[in-house]
Amino acid sequence: MPLKKGLPALCAAAVIAVVFAGFTGCRSDSEDSKKIQNLDFTVVGEEEVPGELAQIIAQKREKPFKLTYADANDMYIVIGEGAQQGGGYSIAVHELYLTDNSVVIRTELMGPGSSEATGTDMSYPVLIVKTQYIEKPVAFQ
């Protein structure tokens, strides 16, 4: 009988402990992704990147991919959208910025305009962004 009396109190304590544990140690995602500063960058062509990076891009270009590559001073952020039917595709950079724990790049694949001749050959849009080397992971958005 004494067990039955203590069971509701024990259950209530367990629920409170679980709720409390759920709130501790949590940090808002917006806190982690708060922009500290915009980063300067240059969009470069494949002929302007280190040879090793150019080879990696050539190997990966047929399927969508995202990668970063760094040398002594620079970081290259590369986004490939894989095979696209016809031409006229490009990748736009909307933002490149620094947060407390990452470098964030926000891009968008732009299709050909309605009046643009696209042809029938496959195209492989690739964006290469060159920026200063920062030792933080890159978040692709």
Describe what you observe in this structure.
This protein has 141 residues and is of the alpha+beta class. The chain has one domain (28-140). It has three helices and ten strands. It has helices at 2-23, 29-32, 51-60, and strands spanning 37-38, 41-43, 64-70, 74-81, 84-85, 90-98, 103-110, 122-123, 126-132, 138-140. The strands form three sheets. It has a four-stranded mixed β-sheet, with no helix packed on it. Strands 2-9-4-3 form a four-stranded antiparallel β-sheet, with helices on one face. A two-stranded antiparallel sheet has the order 5-8. β6 and β7 (103-110) form a beta hairpin. The longest helix has 22 residues, at 2-23. The protein is globular.
The helix content is 25-40%
Overall pLDDT: 83
In this structure, how is the largest beta sheet organized? 4 strands, mixed
Q: How many structural domains are formed by the residues?
A: 1
Gross morphology: globular
Number of helices: 3
Low-confidence stretches: 10-15, 17-28
Structural class: alpha+beta
Strand arrangement within the widest β-sheet reads 1-6-7-10
Q: Order of SSEs, N→C?
A: HHEEHEEEEEEEE
Quote the beta fraction: 35-45%
Number of strands: 10
Instruction: State the separation between the terminal residues, measured CA to CA.
Output: 59 Å
Gyration radius over CA: 24 Å
